Amino acid sequence: MEKYYRMVIDLYKEVLLINRVNPDRVLDAQREISNAITTAIITNEPTGELELLKSDIENLKSHISQ
Length: 66
Prior knowledge:
By secondary structure, this protein is mostly helical. Helices cover 77% and strands 0% of the residues.
């Protein structure tokens, strides 16, 4: 789980430092977290924290075109 938090934090840092985010990095993070959510569903584990991280990435996507 720490790996996923680190990805999202790094994306936020990028937005704060250069006021934009790399769309490829956002898509990679989104893909990894979506895969983790799918795995958690299959293994009957909670997905709440992963869903929150996924929504954070959706929020960051709004900065791609800016």
